[in-house]
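--- STAGE predict ---
source: upstream dedup step, 1 unique chain passed
mode: sequence only
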Amino acid sequence: MKRGQITGYKQIYFIIALFLIAFMFVYLHQSFKQYSQESFECTSEAYQEIMIAKILYSDCFTYTDPSTESIIPGSIDKTKFIQENYNNCFNFLIKKTNLTIDGVSIGEPIYDPISINKTIWLYDGEGKTPNIITFMFEEPEC
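--- STAGE serialize ---
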C-alpha cells in the first residue's frame, strides 16, 4: 500500500470513531437529563405530607374553639368537612386527592389510590370523638 492510502484509511477510521463518540455523548447527555428531570418531578411523598399538614393544621377543616377563637390542630369540624370548602382551599391541586371520614368522602374519585390513615378528633354538635381520616392520593407516574 502506498502512503496516501494508509493516511486515507486512518481518516475514515477517525471519522467513524468521532461519530461514535459524539453519538455516545448525546445518548449519555439525554439519559442524565431525563433522570434529573424525573427525580425533580417525582415528589409524591412530599406532596402527600404537605397535603396532610394543610388539612390537619390549616383553618379549612380544623375545629375552631369558640371561647379562644383559635384552631385546634389535628381536629376536624364535621360542619366544615364539605366539598365546597375542599374546592375553595385546594383549588391549586393538579393531582387527584380524596378525603374520607365516617363514610363521608370529599374530593375526586380515584381508582387504585395510595391510602394514608391518620387519627384525629372529630368535632360535631355533640362533642368530640376520636376518629380516622383516610387520605387517598393518585398513584405517582414515576
